Amino acid sequence: MTARTFIEDTNNVTGKIVATDNKNMDVLEITMPDSEVVDVGDLITFQDNTPTTIFKGYVQNYTFGNGTKKVIVFDQGAVLSQRTVNKLYTNQSPEAIFEDVVTNQVAGLTYSSTISSGITIATYSAIDKTAWDICQDMAEILLSSFRVSVAGLVTLELIGSVLSSKVITSTIASLEEDWEKDKLQLVNSVKVKGDRQIFGKVETFDGTASATEFTLAEIPEEVKVSISGVEKIGYIPGQGTGDYYVEKENKKIIFDSAPASGTDNISVDYTYNFPITVRRRDFSSITTYGQHDKTIERNYIKTREEARKLCEYILNKFANPLFIGTWIITDAAEVKLFSSYIPNQVIWVTDTDNSINREFIIKVVEREVGKLRITVGDTTSDILFWQKEAQRRIEQLEEKDNNSTILNEDELIVENLLINFTSGVIGIKTQQTGTTCFYDASHNYNESKTYDLTTDSVGIQKSKFPLRFPITLA
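-> structure tokens emitted (474 positions)
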């Protein structure tokens, strides 16, 4: 690896820096004479004519054309994709795992964050994963992004949680084109489905001395039945005896003997659950844009109030098209402040021509000689239930890891295979068809047996083959 320094607009060297939110990676494109010698992996320092370092990173590739060379340089975070981690994390927060990877698994980087999620990942397998993939996993769980500074500082922060120190106004910037309206994410009719809520209910019935079946209003969960104030014994048919049993799906209480006649002398005190479902519409938006439906299922929502809040949050953010706009800044002093415009931070935008005066999220920042292009847009991040969303993402990640582990175990092939039958195997007989070994019922063994399938006595060659074992256990 060679360390090289290039100064912008000197010796026919120009550069374009793109800082974007979708890859957590800043990219520098340098155009230089093809006589300049650079190689993949070289550490490049790029300075303006002050000179002040505005970018530092590693060459990824380069191409030639018309006597020039275009060099693609990734920021210093590129080392994260070049380091493989082999570690099992237990009972740690996502931000703690992220910090360990950056500070202990990769040399030359430091870490900074204000995130304190208050959640714990029981088990996270970072076996044979790149540091970059681990950081991406943790950032996605936390609904956050990370970036790497010129000094190699990796900062992890929630998307849309930090207010930029900058503002965009018509006095320092001009709108490149008209604002775009993104109707693909328009939602003006939303249904939120939460967990099932438990309710209690008491119903009374009149005994007739002949009726044995009584139908409840809801499907019961836990039931207590009394007749004339005396509690009766419930049972499950075929598993005991008592006074009554419950046909849950039919909502029925069925007595063995008909209760005596009486007014409200049969009392059923029971619980039932009901799915929490709330639906809200923005009729003004529907009138303007037509109806756009969305259903969201979140089992961490335990009350109708939480479901209602999420409905209102979604309608407030998505009932009207999301705006995207690109601003051009050419003021020399402002262009030098390139590193102050940070993707995923909130920035205040005042556009007097279009009567817009509110916050947006910085999406993409591009810097080239004498010019900044800053793309801003409405945020789509849902941080209302941030901690619960993070926990849900952990569960999805653990499920994905578990499935991956099962696949990896299935793919492991060994030549010396020992099988231990420790619970008494009925009937063991080997049969080989092609490269597949079967076990079928034969005669009885009531002891532990060990079989080496690679020995000649079993008749299977030492080779890689898939195995199936249809085995009946005693």
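Confidence is low (pLDDT under 50) at residues 405-474.
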